[in-house]
TrEMBL record:
Chief site of localization: membrane
Lineage of origin: Bacteria, Bacillati, Bacillota, Bacilli, Bacillales
Keyword Zinc set for record: yes
Transmembrane segments: 173-194, 311-330, 350-369, 396-415
Keyword Transmembrane helix found: yes
Protein keywords: Hydrolase, Membrane, Metal-binding, Metalloprotease, Protease, Transmembrane, Transmembrane helix, Zinc
A Gene Ontology cellular-component term: membrane
Gene3D superfamilies given in the database record: 2.30.42.10
SMART domains assigned: PDZ
One Pfam family of this chain: PDZ_6
PROSITE patterns listed in its UniProt record: PDZ
Subcellular location: Membrane
BP terms from Gene Ontology: proteolysis
Name this polypeptide is given: Zinc metalloprotease
Length: 423
């Protein structure tokens, strides 16, 4: 049960922060954000606030922010349509009843001649059964279509995605991944504040039985401060000297319980795991050292995000170039399985895992593939270069095909996850 709760909270946090970035910058640019969704598929829960429908959906495979003009509009009024109009206190149309007009006895019924809900916000038409007088009706900027008793707010052109500048559109698309990187930085800072910032002090962790270290009297918790009379500046330096000193006596100075001790150890020659060389080992594991540093904590947050980003990009490059198999990818099932293992190791490791997934989500969404943020940013970049936008229908078709392929990939990855778990 702990894993289920942890997974739900983690998934909700990662997707909510990502989509919140899209939502905030859409609203800042004056776009009409129709829906803020966590998950896909059937709605489990929904409410409306400030023109936006907030929904939680059944399938935990992502989320989206649906912006006016950026989604397929399903309501289009054409000449000859019979519709009902309801008016606000200013005499402007605030409800356009498309069907089921008998449920709106107070609606003014007309036959449509022409409509402009993008720029002029007018409807021209005739009263039903009386074509002697053409009438013009002004439409409120926040009027609603009523179809099947469901409301859909109209979107004047200046509130649609396509009406905004290249910079505003690019920022709205980039904001989601950006928020994932910011979330990772914040989580790493929290980890640093709670447990301290890792340092390069060489503390001994586990001492293996019957090892050169045990024979020399080295104990868990000792801090190595000198080798052969020289101070140790980093853990990497300590490991390098040991590996180069197989079968040689090494004089150590270590700190134990605030006192210094001098010991001599002889690293044993062993073959490295990659079988490419033989190196010296003394049979110890190094324990991470931590220190409390307020400024260092913020540096740690940014540096951990940088190093994790670099690692994920390296693995992504290896995947694209065929150096890693697609079997290395994991979907929701695989992530849940790893989350189960991580939760059992402690809350700090769970926070670390959440930060890594947040970075991964940000990077994957920036990959220039159709239907992803990166793919849509690519179209904005192409528009910038050619000086005019690509045909929206063609771009929409590309994204639909891309989304279908992504769903197919998700199915394959999920099947691989299930096989790893049960086969």
């Amino acid at each position: 049960m702990n894993t289920v709760i942890a997974f739900i909270l983690m998934f909700g946090l990662l997707v909510s922060v990502h989509e919140w970035g899209h939502l905030i910058f859409a609203k800042r640019a004056g776009m009409l954000a129709r829906e803020f969704a966590i998950g896909f598929g059937p709605k489990i829960f929904s409410f409306t606030k400030n023109e936006t429908l907030y929904t939680i959906r059944l399938l935990p495979i992502g989320g989206y922010v649906r912006v006016a003009g950026d989604d397929p509009e399903i309501i289009e009024l054409k000449p000859g349509h019979h519709i009902g109009l309801e008016f606000n206190q200013d005499g402007k149309v605030d409800k356009i009843i498309v069907n089921n007009k008998d449920k709106h006895p107070n609606a003014h019924l007309i036959e449509v001649e022409s409509v402009d809900l993008d720029h002029e916000l007018i409807i021209d038409g005739y009263d039903i059964g009386d074509e002697s007088e053409r009438k013009r009706f002004s439409v409120d900027r926040k009027a609603f279509f009523i179809m099947d008793e469901r409301e859909t707010q109209i979107a004047p052109y200046d509130r649609q995605f396509a009406s905004k500048t290249v910079g505003q559109r690019a920022m709205q698309l980039f904001a989601g991944p950006m928020m994932n990187f910011i979330l990772a930085i914040v989580i790493f800072i929290i980890i640093g504040l709670v447990q301290g910032v890792p340092n390069d002090q060489t503390f001994i962790g586990e001492v293996q039985p019957n090892s050169p270290a045990e024979a020399a009297g080295i104990q868990s918790g000792d801090e190595i401060i000198q080798i052969e009379g020289s101070s140790i500046s980093s853990r990497e330096e300590f490991i390098s000297i040991i590996e180069k000193s197989a079968n040689k006596e090494i004089d150590l100075v270590l700190k134990r319980a605030e006192q210094t001790e001098e010991l001599t150890v002889i690293p044993k020659e062993v073959e490295r795991e990659d079988a490419k060389a033989k190196v010296g080992q003394i049979g110890v594991g190094l324990a991470p050292g931590f220190e409390k540093s307020f400024l260092g904590t913020f540096k740690y947050g940014f540096m951990q995000t940088y190093h994790t980003t670099k690692l994920i990009l390296t693995n992504l490059f290896m995947l694209v170039t065929g150096q890693l198999s697609i079997d290395m990818l994991s979907g929701p099932v695989g992530i849940y399985d790893v989350t189960d293992k991580v939760v059992q190791t402690g809350f700090m490791n769970f926070l670390m895992w959440t930060a890594m997934l947040s970075i991964n989500l940000g990077i994957i969404n920036l990959v220039p593939l159709p239907a992803l943020d990166g793919g849509r940013l690519l179209f904005v970049a192409i528009e910038t270069v050619r000086g005019k936008p690509i045909d929206p229908q063609k771009e929409g078709l590309v994204h639909v095909i891309g989304f279908a392929l992504l769903m197919l990939l998700m199915i394959v990855v999920t099947w691989n996850d299930i096989q790893r778990l049960f086969l």
